[in-house]
Amino acid sequence: MALIDRFNPNLNKIEVSMIRQFDQSISSIPGIIKLTLGEPDFTTPDHVKEAAKAAIDANKSYYTGMAGLVELRQAAADFVQEKYNLHYNPDNEILVTIGATEALSATLTAILEPGDKVLLPAPAYPGYEPIINLVGAEVVEIDTRANDFVLTPEMLEEAILAEGDKLKAVILNYPANPTGITYSRQEIEDLAEVLKKYEIFVICDEVYSELTYTEQGHVSLGEYLPDQAIVISGLSKSHAMTGWRIGLIFAPAVFTAQIIKSHQYLVTAATTNAQYAAIEALTVGKDDAQVMKEQYIIRRDYIIEQMTAMGFHIIKPTGAFYIFAKIPVAEGQDSFRFLQKFAQEKAVALIPGVAFGQYGEGYLRISYAASMENIRTAMTRLKEFMEQYENN
C-alpha cells in the first residue's frame, strides 16, 4: 500500500471549491473584470490600522490567551449587546478566532462525530460542507428556492423530523451568502419556536450582520435561543478586515469550554496585533460599516435595475453584498459553462450558481463589493452578451 492511500478517506469527499476552479479557468483572460470576491473593496479604516501599528511598536507580539485578549472579548460583548441585544460574559462565553472560517471549523469539529447530520438551507455558502464531511458527518440541504430563499418554520420542522436522532445541528447563515436574504424579527421568532423544541445545536453564521439593509437591522437567533445558539461573527465584512483574520464565537460557557479545546489545537490563538486592531474597530469604529452600507445599497439598486431590464429574475437582497439572479436563457442552466462563455467573450467574471450546490444551478452570483466603474462596465457587457442570445 502506498502512503497516498493512507490519508483520511473523508478527504475524498472534498474537492477544490468550484469558485476557485472557475476563477482559475478565467483568470488568464486579459483585462478581466471580476465581480466575484466576497470581500469589501473598501480599505480597513485608518484608525484601526494605527491601533495595530501602535501594538507592534509597543512590542505586543507575544501569545495572548487561547480565548483571546480579555479587552477584545469585553469589546465584543459590549458591541453585540448594544447592536443586537445579546448578552455574553467575556470571561467564559466568547472566543476570538482566526476569522469566521476557523470559528466554524473549531465549532463543527467540537460538535460533530461520524454519522451525524447537519441541516443547511440551500443554496448555501460552500465552505460548510467540507468541514462537516472531514469529520465524517453529512450535510442535509433544505431547498428554499420555492420561497424566495427564505427558510420557513414549516420547512425547518419537516426537515428536523425527517432526520431523526442523527440530526446534531442546523446552520443558519444570514444575511446570506449567496442570496443576500435576511430575516425579520417575526421570522426569527417563528424559527426559534421550532428550534427550541429539539435538542440540536443552532450555529448562526452572522458575519454579515452589520451589512443588513432593513430598517429594523439585524436580529440574532442568539437573542431567542441563548441555550442552543452558537453565534459566529467577525470583522472581515463589517470593517473591511478580511486579511486580518479576526473571528468571534459567542456561546454558553458550557459550549465554549468544549469548543476552546479544538480551537486551541487548531491555532493556539489569534494574531496579537490584529486583536488590538479589533478592539479599536469594535469600540471607536463600532459604526464604521455605515459608510460602506450606503455605497452597497446604491450599487445593489443599480445592478437590479439593469439586470431586471435584461430579463433576469432577482430577489432583492436585504443584506451582505451579493445578488443571486436566475439566468433567463436555456443555455444558462449550465451556469458554469454559461459564465465561462461570458467571461471569454466579454472579459467579465461572475460566479456560477452551481458553486453553491445543486439548488444554485441556473443562477449566477454577483458581488457588488466592487467599484461603481467596474459595475457599470460589467452591466454594459452583460447587456451586450444577453442581446446576442436574443438575436440568435
From TrEMBL:
Residues 32-382 form the Aminotransferase class I/classII large domain. InterPro entries: Aminotransferase_I/II_large (IPR004839), AspAT/PAT-like (IPR050596), NHTrfase_class1_PyrdxlP-BS (IPR004838), PyrdxlP-dep_Trfase (IPR015424), PyrdxlP-dep_Trfase_major (IPR015421), PyrdxlP-dep_Trfase_small (IPR015422). Its cofactor is pyridoxal 5'-phosphate. Its EC number is 2.6.1.-. This is Aminotransferase. NCBIfam families: PRK07309.1 (NF005588). Pfam families: Aminotran_1_2. GO terms for molecular function: transaminase activity. Keywords: Aminotransferase, Pyridoxal phosphate, Transferase. Belongs to the class-I pyridoxal-phosphate-dependent aminotransferase family.
